[in-house]
Amino acid sequence: MNVAGVNQSVATGRVKFEWSNGSSNSGAPVEKMVYGVAVNALNLPEGADPNDIKNFQIVLGPGPGFATRIYTAASLSCGAGLNSVQVLVLSRRTLDPDRIVAGNTDHPGQACFADAASLANFLKGLPTGDLVIANSFFGAMPNLNTTAIGGTDFSKKPGVTPLYYNVIGAVGAPAGQAYESYQPIHPGVAYISSLIGSLMLDTRQNYFFVPSEYRNLHVIPNDPAFPGTPTTTFLYPGAPYRQTLPAGARGGFVLFLIDRQKGYIQWFKLLPTNSSNPADSAAAYRDLLGALTSSSPEYMIILTTIGVPFSSPTQVITHFGRLSMRAEAMVT
Amino acid sequence: MIAKLIPPSGGGAPPAYTLVSSTNRNYPAAEIIENCSLWSNQGDTGEVRILLGRNKTNLWSVQIGMSEPTSSALNFDWTRVGFQQPQDWPAWTPAQQKAYEDLTSSKNTYPSVRQALGCNPCQPIRSYYDGGIGGNGQAPTVTRVNYAGLTYQVNPDYTEQDFNAVRQQLSVEQGYLSNVYVLYSLFLPLTRDPSGYNIPQQLGIAAGQIEQSLRDAYADDALLIERLELAADVSDVASQIPYVGTAFSAASGVLRGAAYLTPSYSGVPDSYALKLKELVNQNTTLGADLARSIDTWFTGFTNDRGKLQTIGSGYDSQKAPWYMCVTCRDSNVPRSAIPMLALGAKRGFYAQLLPYVYSLNAFYATQAATPTRLGGWVGVSGAGLLCYPPYEDSPSESWIIYTNITTPSTRDFYIMTQIKTDTRYYPFYGKVLRFPSLSLLDDLFSTPVLNSNGTLARGAGFIRDRFVSAQGRSPIMPVIPGYVPNNAPCQK
């Protein structure tokens, strides 16, 4: 149909557009998922008695529109006390407790186990994909096996006692895909190391753990902020740690050891290898050699220089050849 | 390397060296960080900045390690804030809650709000904050509500003071939200730039530059996306990009997000692997996965009080790393970091592939001037003994020569040699060694440059000293004893 000319129309009728309320299939507004919530897999509130298992929490939240939920073992039966393992089973879609576990009790989704075999069997029987958060309080369960949720079978790691173990995994995940934390060496409340982060929606809209802790480390050998006074600076995390050459020393190394479990600074020491005092130099070489070859494998070593570390090639030969020979011995 | 830290000839600044490592045999080689001022060809100073984060076993580990001055104004806050624990919105008082609900209620007390949102019925205002995520970077209509123009309507449920408190809080959030959407529009080109200057395509170009024999032989090899950040540290490239430090940390946060949020075949997010063949052929879901990572990140920024406040206010005050622009002295836009990520891919693949094919053959305290003259006595049928030099054909670029520490008149050699050897039987018996081609050596050691269009060219920028500096425990290539025919050394 064509319009015949200017100011003409094909009809005089008009259409009135009116907006009506949009509606989805159900007529209800879209329900939004929370993109992420905070999580702590083994929380001991400050000042709480670590020998009372009821004080150990699994904390979910807060998040945007998600109030904090605290799960404890208060209603659970944990036959091995501090060496038991409490488990929280959640839907990966909603973060609600999976009522297949203790659904008719006042602690849905929660269970506690006194031995590794019972725990492993329980985990194997859970619905594939469920999110599992577990911890062993202020203790350790012998032969712990969490491979059913992507964790570790410690019965195959003789000599390793996973103190204060905590894990966030998913039922059916291959071993190694869960996030785990435990203290291998140091007993004590100060060495409890919990998984802290967020449960975030992945691209398939399932929640999984994302760690949240980050720290900056800035190493500045011969810090230019201190001209004329050889100074080496570490900023960790943001706080300055400095070493300045003492009288009689022209240079050396600075060692900064960080406990990889807790992030503590284990050792921060100046080693004046280039010192006018031969005894100081000798001690510094000894310490340097010891640190580079015999430090605990639990530590991260940060080695840097201050001033001129060696006075001459001769000094290197005299003191440092041993380290070189050790390196050669590793390949010859 | 350490043994070279002696007084500089002719005075000058003292040499500086930094090493980050561990005695733990399981400590990843990729997380060994070294920097030395004696690597002068790349302007290193020994100064390093490191971002430590928790790994799968909750141990602090190196996530990013960058040298100075590469990393001038390097700031890791995008990663730190982007993955910090979520926070809820500040709690309203009961009366403020009523005022907040009334802004969008069906009673239409404040019609301009509903008009700006274009909704009927309407949901609470904050539920509209992420409405622009997944789009083209345009801020949603909730950023256009005129809170300043609202007038309190007398209501028994809340006072004017309550109303003003809500209005002011939402007004602040609105400003932050607008800023976050500006940043979102700056991040989108990382994956969507139609000109091809995006992460997947540039990584593909860089992967395609890997020497062909290695590339073809190990096409199915995969590099973990998390390793790109560790491998990208080359001062020369960074110095060609103004103020790339913060942009690099922002872009690397997106990569990290892809690893955290993309489920593996098991349904659980695990490490994110980049297959060499798929990168080269551009047959990869990397672009889509990174785009989802950006969307998830920014959904968090718009819905989370802590992140919105930190990023929104940081942008307002034009502070690095939150404010980004092409002329910002401390904070370039995210896409400026693409060449460094591309370089990270190239270096990462080389570091992964080289040990499959090559080793470093080591000789200590030798009298020979060069490896080409090192040999061993072999018996030639009917002609007596011959000094056979198996390294005779090795290019000089494949060696590293050090003065031996304990006997300075002698030398130590490290020669890059193929692990696979052949055997010759006539006229004498001995191994035949093969060496990297000149083109591979050039691609490994030559300085990377940026083309005028921003793509990466030339080499991977490896420092030859670095190839052996982690000797013994975690070298880039395995260090093995050099080959001396019949264990009867001679010099040719």
Characterise this structure:
The complex is a heterodimer of chains A (332) and B (492). Helix content of chain A is 14%, strand content 31%. Chain A is built from three helices and 16 strands. Chain A has helices at 116-124, 278-294, 313-331; strands at residues 36-43, 57-60, 69-72, 85-90, 110-113, 131-135, 163-170, 179-183, 196-201, 207-211, 214-220, 231-235, 240-244, 249-259, 265-275, 299-307. Chain B has 492 residues and is an alpha+beta fold. Helices cover 34% and strands 17% of the residues of chain B. Chain B has helices spanning 77-82, 94-102, 111-117, 160-187, 189-192, 199-208, 212-217, 227-231, 235-239, 245-261, 276-280, 286-303, 305-316, 338-357, 438-445, 464-469, and strands spanning 17-21, 33-36, 48-54, 60-67, 222-224, 273-275, 358-366, 374-380, 384-388, 399-403, 411-418, 422-424, 430-432, 448-450, 456-458, 479-481, 489-491. The radius of gyration of chain B is 29 Å and the shape is elongated. At the A-B interface, strand 1, strand 8, strand 9, strand 10 and strand 11 of A face strand 1, strand 3, strand 4, helix 12 and strand 16 of B. Strand 16 of chain A pairs antiparallel with strand 1 of chain B.
Which tags fit this structure?
heterodimer, A: 332 residues, alpha+beta, five-stranded antiparallel beta sheet, 14% helix, disordered N terminus, B: 492 residues, four-stranded mixed beta sheet, three-stranded antiparallel beta sheet, 16 helices, 17 strands, 34% helix
Mean pLDDT rating of chain B: 89
The percent of residues in helical segments of chain B reads 25-40%
* Average pLDDT reading of chain A: 88
Structural class designation of chain B = alpha+beta
Counted beta strands of chain A: 16
